[in-house]
Amino acid sequence: MAKKTEIPEYGTVVRKGTVYYRTRILDVDGKQVSLYATTCEELYEKQLAARREVEAIIFRRKHPTVEEYAEKWLLMQSAKVSTATMRGYTFAMKNHVIKPMGDMYMEEVTADDIRLALVPLSKKSAGLYNTVNMLIKSIFYSAERNQLIEHNPCVGLSSKGGKAKKKKEALTDDQVEVLVNTVRGLPPYLFVMIGLYSGLRREEILALQWDSVFLDAVTPYISAQRAWRSEHNRPVVSTVLKTKAAKREIPIPKCLVECLREAKAESISEYVIADSKGEPLAYSQFMRVWEYIVVRSTKERTYYKYVNGQSIKYSVKPTLGMKQKNNPKVEYTIDFNVTPHQLRHTYITNLLYAGVDPKTVQYLAGHENSKTTMDIYAKVKYNKPEELFDVVNGAFER
Q1: Most buried of the four, 29, 40, 61, 230, by CB within 10 Å?
Q2: Three-state secondary-structure class, residue 185
Q3: Averaged over 19-35, what is the pLDDT?
Q4: pTM (whole model) above 0.90
């Protein structure tokens, strides 16, 4: 015969004319909290449920799952990193850490579990692989410091993986000429000129205001003081730059001075590049501006058309000189790849080709780490056979 549950006797308290039974328990932080009910039986059930909940929370605190601890780690990072960085961390964590390992307790994860989680990323970019690898190591090293795990499964885990990023190529002089002639008079013209002849980053160009453009100085220059970013497709401009080195003053050549003078004379905005209302561009607006370049390239395009109710996929590869079928004003003139960052890379490469010393280039580019500049420098200098010839002969001359 089942043993009858003995209901404890509780004290009572009167609240608003009603008699309640009352008891107290300790919450997860060790503080006393009161529970009330109109019958002893109801209060006993409440007490048991509350204790079970407290025990479960205490257990989870001592034995969190990967998902629970990863979300806690992200919350702690939100006070330290930018909104854009946080967005990237959250996406990578949810899709590549929580998805494969989220239900596992932190202490039961092994090195093999982590390696298996990283397998799908081996076909992704090295940048994404490295980010996920960093996030996994961060949460487990944090858990180890807080004594939530005895053994860290990340010890000895290799950080190498993913597909190597395609090396950036600067535009040649001929390509620069084609690009500039193609966009002259079109919305991206000013952006392209600033990128090619000042080396500003995209976020620096889109945040550039006329109070940072000094065209009448003895040596005309641009002062990099602000950065643009997009939050939910809304432009946000602030004085928080990518690095401390990003704040710099850049002398600009005559061709860019003239271009900026013309733009300033017609400008209705405090921003150098703005929308029709004088506001900084949203991300989608910038992409529409850049599309003027994309539609004039000979890059292969994929289209779909319906035949007898079925969607048929087909590809078209335009050739130079052809005109767009639906818009004869658009001519295909660009047979090379070009990205916003490529404009900056071309600027840096051209400085090095001109013999500007790497330390000066580092300052003008706003590189915080000289390694970035030196990697480009080495590629520029030692890709020239005449330079290699001089170096080798100089090394072995007696």
Answers
A1: 230
A2: coil
A3: 86
A4: no
